Amino acid sequence: MGQLCVNWLSVGVMQTNCYLISHPETKELILVDPGEEAERIQHEIEKNEWKPVVILLTHGHFDHMGAAELLRKWNSIPVYCYEGETDLIEKPESNLSAMFGNGFSCTIDGVFRDQEVLSYLGEDITVIHTPGHTQGSCCLYFAKEGFLLSGDTLFSESVGRTDFPTGNSLELKQSVLKLYQLPEETIVYPGHYEETTIRHEKRHNSFVLG
Questions:
Q1: FRET pair for 187, CA 20 to 30 Å: which of 22, 72, 157, 203?
Q2: What SS3 state is found at 165?
Q3: Rounded-to-integer distance, Cα 98 and Cα 81, Å
Q4: Which residues touch 209 (CB under 8 Å, ≥6 apart)?
Q5: d(CA 188, CA 139)
Q6: What gap in Å lies between CA 144 and CA 119, rounded to an integer?
């Protein structure tokens, strides 16, 4: 455990956690949920001499993918999301960016599926489909490293909203209960706010009892 370096920037008006996960030796980098402030994220990449290999999106809301298209072009790297979430990402009225003018979208280069194991930075990353916040929301589980990127499914003592397009409160509860099956020591890095653990959430998250 602990081979990868996990860094994050809180970006944009929604203070979304953009995760920059790197390998200390190869300098290869995974970007997760670059929501806004593309230039600031790019500066961090250049400052650390990272080599971006992929952008992974936990879901399609604007505050998690707003900088993805620019970073995709600047670094010639592909963007991936969960299957079925592409439509939301590519339509400004669905990804909520249309609320702020003309809106924006992002080109999706490929999709992944539930329980698919992705291989980046010499690690296996398991995709866990967690509908509820959106129909195509997912979490990314780094089993060997012992951490989970939970997007807007699970927060510290809270959960994601379900009143946006494709949201569903019952599905969200079932998704969180699915995450509770992970080892209790698993560190949870959410899309907003501070990190937590599965153990802490099982004991203190009043939004999901089970």
A1: 72
A2: coil
A3: 20
A4: none
A5: 10
A6: 12
Could you tell me which residues come within 8 angstroms of residue 138 by beta carbon, excluding any fewer than 6 positions away?
Answer: 58, 59, 82, 85, 112, 114, 127, 128, 129, 130, 151
Q: Are 48 and 22 in contact (CB under 8 A)?
A: yes
Structure tokens belonging to residue 143: 């089993």
Quick check: 71 and 52 in contact, CB under 8 A? yes
Spatial separation of the C-alpha atoms in residues 80 and 153, rounded to whole Å: 18
Q: Contact, 208 vs 159, CB < 8 A?
A: yes
Taking the whole predicted model, whether its pTM rises above 0.90 is answered as yes
94 residue type, one letter: S
What six digits make up the tokens of 92? 């400004």
Do the beta carbons of residue 4 and residue 121 sit within 8 Å? yes
> CA nearest 109: which of 69, 167, 60, 147?
69
Q: Which two tokens stand for residue 163?
A: 């009143």
Per-residue pLDDT tens over the stretch 16-63: 999 999 999 999 999 999 999 999 999 999 999 999 999 999 998 888
Determine the length of the chain: 210
